[in-house]
Amino acid sequence: RGPDFDSQLEAVIPFARKEKPVVIRVRSATDILDAIDFAKELDIKAVLRDQGTESWKVADKIKEAGIPILISSVTQSVSSSYYPYDTVYSLPAKLHEAGVLFAFYTGSNTHARDLPLSAGIAVGFGLPEDAAIAALTGNTARIFGVDDQVGTLDVGKRADIIVTDRSPLQATSNVIHMFIGGKPIDVDDNMHTDLYKKYMKRLKRHGAELETSVPQ
Fold this sequence. Notes:
The protein is α/β, with parallel strands linked by helices and 216 residues long. It is 40% helix and 13% strand. It has 8 helices and 7 strands. The strands form 2 sheets. It has a 4-stranded parallel sheet. The chain is globular, with a radius of gyration of 22 Å. The relative contact order is 0.08. The mean pLDDT is 89.
């Protein structure tokens, strides 16, 4: 007689019951169509994680299947030299026009700070700004079923908020206030600002040395 408890099978239960989404990695339009068929056959709640640049080709199929998709940086190269130069830049706008629920993602914590840049570029190629911000916030929460806790500003949700001096999608914008769980975070004293101050001092000192060494 086998054991009464199997930890591996136990871990699968929330996915089999559609309580949690199964993230399926795709790269091409064919991958996406196969993933849609796979999700339908197994009757699972699926999320596509697109590592390619062809989801625009089957946007109508993604919408019809009702499956959300995560798209990576719009600064990556197109998957075919035959595609227009702006294929990746305009991909979010095409998904939005098709009514597909999508969000931006990055493959690592290191590149998370580049997400607003991707959204900003997408705005420059047809994606409405409010849709771009939603793809960084509310859409992500909806896709993973935590929109009752985070993603938008509403009573009862976690107060994770940033206040910027310009559009948060502008690369030159600065975060002037931040709240995590309703608690204020000091944005002027962190590792990044410490490094900035450290090397600015070095540059100023080096500049002063250059000025004193120039013959009058």
